[in-house]
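The material for today's practical consists of a large collection of protein records. Getting from the letters to the tokens is the skill we practise here. To make this concrete, we reproduce a full record directly below:
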Amino acid sequence: MNRSDERALIEQATMGSRTAAEELVRAHQASLYAYMLRMSGRPDVAEDIVQDAFVRALTNLSRFDFRFRFSTWLFTIAKRLYVNACQKHKPAYDSDVVGAARGSGSAPECSTIDGEVTLNAKSAIDFALGHLSQEQREIVVLFHQLDWPIAQIAEYMDMPEGTIKSHLHRGRQKMREVLANHEAHLSHVEEVIRA
């Protein structure tokens, strides 16, 4: 969604348009859920955070600053809610559920063997993500899963772009090291690369 369309929807939603509010939710719900699921590793926590984030964003829409992207603001609200939820829930990664979540679109049909290979690779990636710091995991997920550009991640995380690049580089390096030290997970990732 381009910024002018986004601005028009926000203005309409602020004036009470349910249709505009629904369109804002539809535009960001899948990616926000996928992001929160990757961060928390728990579908129940991710669902609660996403729902609460939208309620708070739509309730306070009149406070939105048009200098920023709506997605950045929404993800910031969700991140704050996630930090609060972390005090109540310790992340427990469920690779089947986390790996099945996508920002948008649907997975193509594949044979049972291909599905197993993909599931094994996702499990390995989840394992490696679990060894990253909170910041590194968040940056890797935003960049690789949600395709956010470095500049948007920097704005969202309130960090210089160079710091984001460093965290991204170190996070990927750490994931490689973790996988290299775990023979089964490394073979699952290599199997996907060969395919």
